[in-house]
Each structure stands twice: as C-alpha cells, then as structure tokens.
Amino acid sequence: MTKTSSFAAPKGFPDYLPPASAQFVAVRDALVHAARLAGYGHVELPIFEETGLFARGVGESTDVVSKEMWTFPDRKNRSMTLRPEGTASVMRAVIEHGLDRGPLPVKLCYAGPFFRYENVQAGRYRQLQQVGVEAIGVDDPALDAEVIAIADAGFRSLGLDGFRLEITSLGDDTCRPQYRELLQQYLLGLPLDEETKRRVRINPLRVLDDKRPEVRELTADAPLMLDHLSESAKAHFDQVLGYLDALGVPYVVNPRMVRGLDYYTKTTFEFVHDGLGAQSGIGGGGRYDGLMAELGGQPLSGIGFGLGVDRAILALEAEGKTAADPARVDVFGVPLGEAAKSRLVELAGRLRAAGIRVDLSYGGRGVKGAMKSADRSGAKYALVLGDRDLAEGEIGLKDLSTGDQQQIRIDDTVAAVTAALAADR
Ligand code: HAM
Predict the structure, then answer these.
(1) Which residues are recorded as binding L-histidine (predicted)?
(2) How far apart are CA 116 and CA 82, in angstroms?
(3) What is the model's pLDDT at position 210?
C-alpha cells in the first residue's frame, strides 16, 4: 500500500475554522433570525435525494441539473444526488408529510450545505452554504414582499449596505408561452451565431441575459416579458412593488433578469453586491407556482429565496465589516500553581453556568505564556490566581485592555465578573 503523506479537502469544499468560522456562524444565524421574526419554522432535510426529484423539480435544461449535479448510485444502484438546492426537497417533504393539507401558508426556513459541480473560483464553491425560506400555499403578493423583505432585513442586520435588489416578473401560464414564442421569433430573425441560435431554441430568455456586448447590442430592442404580462400577472407584480414600497425595501426593476432554475413564475428577484466581481449574486429567489403539482402534489403556489452565506461573508469583507464578536471568551483563567489550578477549574464551571464564556490556561504553562494566551483569546478580563492569593481567599481580576488589576474575594468571583462585564457593555 502506498502511504499518503497528507490529505486535502476536495476542491471547492471549504473548511470553516476559527477565528473565521465565528463570522460564518454569525452570518448564518443573522439570516435565519430574520426569517424567525416572520414566523418561519425550521426544517432539516436530507443531504441527498433521488436524482429524479431535482431533474423534475429544477429542470433538465438548467446548468444545475445538466452539468453540475453530484450524482452517484447507492448500494442498490438507485441514482441519488447531493442536493444542489433546497426548494425541490422542501416541496418533497411538504407533500410527503401532508403539510399542504394543514393551515396555509406553510412557512419554512432551512440552513445548510448544497452541492454543485461548478468551476471553482472566488465566491463559487462546490459545497456552498445557503439560508433559505419557502412560503407555500397562498398566492398573495404581500407574501412575495414579506419573503423579499426578510432577505433585505437579514443582509442589513449584518451591516451590509452595498447591495441592490433586482426584481422582475416572469409572467404566468397564461402569458409566458405566447411571450416565449414571440421572443423566439424575434431572436431567430437576428444575425446571431449558430450556437446562440441553438440556445434561442432551448431557452430564449437566457439569451437576453447574455453578457457579450455584441449580443447585448443585437438584442437591445427585443420584446420583454414585463411588457407582455397578463392582466393578473401585471396586477400581482404591481402589488408586490407597492408592498415593498410600504415596507421601505428599495429595489430596481430589471426586466432582463434570468435565474438559473426553471421553476420560477411571476415574481423573481436577486440581491446583487458590487464588491464581489463576477459572483455578485448574494441571494435570489422567486415564485414557483407550478412546482408542487409538477412533483406530484396539489396545485399550490409558493415563493422563497436562497441566500449565499459564503458570498454574504465576502460582501462583508468587501465592505470592511465584520458580523462576529472577535472575542472567543469573556474571561481567561491564569493559574499560578497546582492548588490554584483546581480552584480555577471549579470557578470556570461556575462562571460558565452563569452564562459567562471562560477559557483557562492548560498544560502547566508559565505566567508569560498563559498571559499571551489570555490576550489571544480576546477576553476582556483575566482571572489570575496564585497559591498565596488562595490562602488569603482572594483572586486577581485583571482588565486586559488597561492592564489594571484589582484583588477580589474568590467567593465573589461570579458576581464581580458579571458586574464588570455588564459595566463594559
Ligand atoms: P440560487 O440562485 O441558485 O437559488 O442560489 C441562491 C444563492 O446561493 C445565490 O444567490 C448565491 O449567493 C448562492 N450560491 C449559488 N451557487 C453558489 C456557489 N457555487 N458558490 C457559492 N454560493 C453560491 C436557489 O438555490 C433557489 N433554491 C432559491 C429559491 C428558494 N428560490 C425559491 N426558493
């Protein structure tokens, strides 16, 4: 057997390690919290599902399904796929457990890893982390606005402000097929190259989103879905914008927006951050009124989003901001001797029970090394205990930012530390 000297994580699968992982947790939790404030309940779903669920749900013609799925046979040769996104799985679970037969809308929130076999680059990974919500079973423009406002509030709660919300309507069953045909006819009449014409035949909408300047120029006057909405789709879209105004959520209408998943109808949106280069989408979503029926459930509508946790972190970095408390603990214990160590171990337990974050110097390190660890931990205070203090029933409470140290009664440690931390806040 050959011996490998070391292992590396699979390409595009990030590790999240301290101290950066604190930022990851803070971002994920803040985005989830925004959904909790609107009554979304937590769902935890399998990491992989039958391949057919995504093929049918997300759409065979999408890049996600045709090029990026992590598909493998299980031990009985059934085709399974690591989830590339959350919406299809949520629909499957809602149908399977009959939530669609209970009170509507069903409002669900999830957070976790998703898998896409993409070309890895800054902000584009093969394991990506999303926070998502889905609101299922009620076709009300106010619910569209709620979902969008949650994403907006989540990003803002992190301190982000260099992003914009782009929004459009992709129409519904009554207007989209005719529009698609109209657009196809129009585009096929243009002097486009053969490859682009092939794409016009498969998905003409995607050609409108082509970034090449020559294609942009040729398609500048192409008909837009927004100008061909059915009366009801138009009324729905106008009301969504009205509710967003009422909620104070700023937006830009982008009639050329194209999403990478096939299930969208009516309202679709993307949050775009300018500090991220090519991978500028920090979140996106929309309505998917035909999805549940497509997956064998009742014909119920739905709307949701997926927010990119990794990209939100990059956006914070681009804005020079942080969402995490850089301190790992509040207090760091420095024992100077064996008896002092046992007493500090016991005090650490009592402080933690009181909700105070505590770490200690372990391994019998000298005072210098222990103080260095204390500084590195980000703690506001060190508790310094020597055997002589112990005999006198006292302990040193050292403010690590000013260097001031006061002696306090050991028996008063929890109360004194609590008071000192409260005074700092
Ligand atoms: P999506 O636009 O494919 O939508 O992904 C949502 C977000 O996930 C993106 O805006 C981006 O921030 C992040 N993301 C996607 N791919 C990567 C990647 N390779 N690396 C890093 N971040 C990435 C969905 O997944 C839909 N399920 C959203 C939805 C829910 N629509 C309705 N309900």
Answers:
(1) 85-87, 116, 130, 134, 259, 263-264
(2) 8
(3) 86
